[in-house]
Fold this sequence. Notes:
6-stranded mixed beta sheet
Amino acid sequence: MAGEFQETIDIKELLRKYPKGLNISEISSALHMHRNTSAKYLDMLKLKGDIDRKQSGPSKNYYLIQRMPISALIRYTPFPAIILSSKKEILMVNREALNLLKCPLDVLYGEKIRDLPYSLFKESIIEDLCHNAVQGQSEIIERETHILGKKLHLRLHFIPVVFDTGRDGCAVVIYDSTENIENLEKLKICRKQYEAVTSDQTEFIVHISTEMIIIFVNEAYCRYIGRSFERITGLRFIPMFQADERERVQSIISSLNPGNHSGNLDLKSVRKDGGIGYENWTFRAIFKDNGDISGYHAIGRNITELKISESRLRQYYDNLEKLIQERTNELQGANRRLLGVISEKEDLEQELLFTQFAFDHASDSIILFDEDGKVYKANRTAGELLGYSDVEMKSISVFDINPSISKEEWLHMWGEAHPGKKERIISIHAKQNGEIFDVDVSRNFVQYSERMYFCSVAREI
Length: 461
């Protein structure tokens, strides 16, 4: 047995040197082996699928071939398989092929492949590739077809096979790539949608591989550093930061794990004008199902203005603390002085109460207006005359009280206003219920605490 094994090895080594093949006489002469013995070993090798035989004129040439035993193919392939004889007749199919083609075995068995009721097998190239496979030449093609109305993307492998009897054949192994192609199309759509979203973002978005190589950046980051997408992708990510900040970036990225997905850093940078800038970056690790890191996602933004504002705010706060202390000391002195005048204020308050009483109970309507025409102050007589409560008087304007005054006329009056200017006219007033009545009005401008007011003293005619 050992001798026979060595002789078959010698035959295979010899044929490996002659890809175009040798006949029995050439093999016997080269190996110093009897012709009948050579024929026996050649038949054994052909039965095993190690060599193939081809008629070339009156002689038969033998050559090495990668022809798969049909029993091994049927047993181990997980894909639909159709087995053809050298005459392209279907001899075997597996269960997966019946499920794919949606038909029973009797529809397929014994038929030539071109006669199957499917448009996929009607193409002339299918029969040619089956013929080539029978001759020992494998091929792969991809086709789109419809089976029972469903569109499928199929990849057909034409594989040279050998039957247990030693006869040559062809196996058509079908791989259904429909789901993969549909997923790839969905992935393309997702990528386009993602690019559409990221392109309008003002934040910097960077995708990084596990080797710290930049594989994607958005337009905002390209504009920020002044380089195109093509010039940035493929570069190492860490060197994009200032030398004194790279160790911090590397440290926080290295610390990411399933229990700590992300980290955040404020980093110094050099602006285009040469000044010191600041950036805020959030680094997030992307994990596979098994917990391994598949890449990193980084989001950054320019926070230079924010940092400058924070610095100014701290300075203002420090100044404010000092100012508060000074003002506290001043207030303490003022409080001491205030205690000395409290008694004087009590007398003044009594006088003010009397003045307010006299103002409210005056026989004429007295109203003070501000520059916008809003009622600043009015006595009770004015409210009783016009039909408004004290609270309602605060919500009306001169245009509600005197409908004869336009906004242009009001602005003109204030344009010529000066303290002490007096005027007496006959005009009209409107009550809350809409009733119009004539009034004798004495009006003038008064100034108090650097503010000007329009004073109207009216008496119903």
